[in-house]
Amino acid sequence: MTLSAHRPRQxxxxxxxxxxxxxxxxxxxxxxxxxxAFAAVADNLHFREAAAEIGMSQPALSGAVAALEESLGxxxxxxxxxxxLLSPAGERLASRARTVLDAVEDLLEEAEAARAPFTGALRLxxxxxxxxxxxxxxxxxxxxxxxxxxxxxxEEQTASLLDGLVAGRLDLLLLAVPPGAPQxxxxxxxxxxxxxxxxxxxxxxxxxxxxxxxxxxxxxxxGLELLLLDEGHCLRQQAxxxxxxxGRTEGVPATTSAAGLSTLVQLVAGGLGVTLLPxxxxxxxxxxxELLATACFADPxxxxxxxxxxxAGTARRDEFAVLAKDLRExxxxxxxxxxx
Length: 340
What we know:
Layout: H1 32-44, H2 47-54, H3 58-72, E1 77-79, E2 84-86, H4 88-115, E3 120-126, H5 131-145, E4 149-155, H6 158-167, E5 172-177, E6 190-205, E7 228-229, H7 234-245, E8 257-258, H8 261-269, E9 275-278, H9 282-285, E10 292-295, E11 303-311, H10 317-330, E12 337-338
Parallel strand pairs: 3-4, 3-5, 7-8
Antiparallel strand pairs: 1-2, 5-11, 6-9, 6-10, 6-11, 6-12
Helix pairs in contact: 1-2, 1-3, 1-4, 2-3
C-alpha cells in the first residue's frame, strides 16, 4: 500500500511543511514493495540475485528501486557495468528499510497469531544431523494434528539458522542446545525450549576391536582415529568437546572429514577410523551396513540436547510452547530421554 501525503493548501514561509522537501519539492511516500526491492539489492549487491530472492522480475525490481530514489530524492545505488554498490546515502538508509520491513512482518505475524494458532506458514529450520532422523516424526505430527499449518522446512547449519531466525527469515529452529544454557537470552535474543537428550554411540568398522562392546569408558576415545564432520557442523564441536572431556589433549586429526553423516559412516566402513553418532541416527545410517558396528559408553554416556529455538518475545510463543509439548510426546518412541 502506498501512503500519500496530503497536498498542503498553502506553503509556510518557515520550515517546509510535511510532505515537502527542503527546497519545496513535494515528496512521495515509499511503498513497501520499493523498500523490499531496495533491501534485497542492498543485501545481494546484484539485481538478478535480488530479484530471484524476492520473486520479482528484474525490470520490476530495477523500476522499484528507481522509484524509491525518486521518492526520497537521494541516490541509493552506484551502478556500473560490472557491479552494484551502495552509495553513502544507501548505506545509511538500507538498515532503516530493513527495520521498516521487519516491523511490518511483526505486525502481520501478530495479526496472524491473533486470528488462529497453527494456521498459516511456519518456517522451521533444522540442522542436518537432526533433519533426516526427526522430520518423519515431525511431519506426521503436523499432518495429523495441525492440517491447516503450512510447514516449510529449511535444512541449514546452526550459524545460518540462527542468523535466519534473528533476521525474521525463519520462525522456529530445531537444533542442538547446550544443556546448561539459559532458556532466554533477553529482549531481541533467542529463547530455547529443550525437547530431549540423546546419547552418542561409537561407530566402528565391523572388525574393530571395540565393535559390539558396551560400557566403554570415555577415556577410550583418547587413542582412536576419530573422523569428524566439516567445520560449521555443531556435531563436530560436540565430538571435540567429548574428546576433551575424555582427556584427549593432542587434538583430533582433521585430514579426513565429511559434509554429512551418511558420508561419515561410509568412511568408517572403509576402515579410515571411527566416529560418534547421535543415537537417533543409527537406524538410518548403520543398521543395513554389515561393514559397520557400534559400541556404547558407560553411564553417564556423552550426549547432546535437542530443543526448539524462537525469537524472544515472538507473538507465537504460546503456540510454539504447545508444539514443543506435542513434539516431546510424539518423540517418546525414539531412543531419547525427554526433557520437561
